Structure formats: C-alpha cells, structure tokens
Amino acid sequence: MRGSDQVTGSLFSYVDLEERIPVRHPLRKIRAVVNDALRSLDAEFDRLYAGEGRPSIAPERLIRASLLQILYSTRSERQLMEQMDYNLLFRWFVGLGIDDVVWVPTVFTKNRDRLLTTDMSRKIMAAILAHRTRGGTAAVGRPFLGRRHPGEGLGVDEEFPAEGKSDVGRGRGSRRSARWQRAAHIFL
Questions:
Q1: Alpha carbon distance 187, 158 (integer Å)
Q2: Using CA atoms, how far apart are residues 101 and 145, in angstroms rounded to an integer?
Q3: Residue from 136, 139, 117 nearest 128 by CA
Q4: DSSP-derived secondary structure for 94-163
Q5: Worst-scoring range by mean pLDDT, 21-25, 43-47, 74-78, 178-182?
Q6: How high is the pLDDT of residue 92?
Q7: Of 105, 112, 71, whose CA–CA distance to 85 is shortest?
C-alpha cells in the first residue's frame, strides 16, 4: 500500500534533541569539555554582566555558537543563524530548544563582540586548555578525533582534499586543515 504524502502540522513537539544526536558524534566530547570550561568561568561572567536591565544572549551560548562557526567554517553570522534555525545538531550544541527563537545576526554579533573584546577570550581558552591538563572528559594523551581525518563526521569531509592530493595551490586546504588540527589539539 502506498504511503500518504500529506503534510500535517503538529501542535506539540516531543523531540528530545539529546536523543537525536548520535552517541559517538565528535561534538559530544567538544561540548562536554566546553561546558566544563564555561562552568568554571561562571563567576567571571557574573562580574561582567549587570544585575539589572534587559537580558542579553547567555555568554555560554555565544561561545558555543562561535565555536560552531569556526569548526564548520561558516562564513558569516547570518549563515550561522540560518543553520541554527533548522539544524538540530547546531541547536543542541548551542543549548537552544527545538522551539526557541534564533537570534538576529546583528544582535548575535554585537553581543559576541562585546564579550570577546574583554579579557574573556583568553580566559575561555585558558579554561579549555586547563581542562585538558586536568584530564577531564577528553582523556589526556588520547586523540580527540581518533585516527580519522579531523573533519570526518562533522559534516565537512567534502571540504578537505583527499589524501595524496593538495588543495594548497588554490589557497584553501592548508587553512582549513590547520584550523581542524588546532581544534583537535585543544581537545587531545
């Protein structure tokens, strides 16, 4: 019997994003390390923000969204917000619920720039690196991304040159693979 192709709008959503992300997805380890590092900076974030006024985007979400932009080589904040609007993996990583509204790109950019123009960017990287030396979620001495290509499993495989072939002549391959190597090195 042929199935129906009718689209029915649902009034309620019962999707748990945690269950939709594969258990062995590399972003799970990255998220755990980043969340631990951000938790250690909670007091710093409290000092940075005023106690009253209109609430801004949570700094933890700004940092996680910025990491996604770096890891997936998203060219602009507008494209990042578009991805976060329909990509469940991005929503899960950042901490947005399935029905949460995604930020306007200019609001995101202003909030992120305001956060990172302070000394917080150094403190965030120091917290992530300190997590590595403490032997947190990502065990010390074990490769974070395994023996696979750095981008494998993160949806960017097609952007990297095949083994034995070089994309350096076109000015693309070396920058992207270097970015992934730096990101993988942080989480070793």
A1: 23
A2: 32
A3: 136
A4: HT--TTPPPPPHHHHHHHHHHHHTTTHHHHHHHHHHHHHHHT-SS-TTS-SSTTS-TTTTTT-GGGSPPT
A5: 178-182
A6: 96
A7: 105
Given a contact cutoff of 8 angstroms between Cβ atoms, the answer to whether 165 and 171 are in contact is no
pLDDT-derived band of residue 115, with 50, 70 and 90 as boundaries?
confident
Sign of CA dihedral 145, 149, 151, 156: negative
pTM of the model: 0.69
pLDDT digits (tens, 9 = 90+) for 51-103: 888 888 999 999 999 999 999 999 999 999 999 999 999 999 999 988 899 99
Tokens representing 31? 């998220």
Report the distance separating Cα 146 and Cα 157, nearest Å: 15
Residue ranges of the domains in the chain?
A: 17-186
Six-digit token string for 44:
């710093």
Q: Give every CB contact of residue 186 below 8 A, 6+ residues apart in sequence.
A: 125, 128, 129, 132
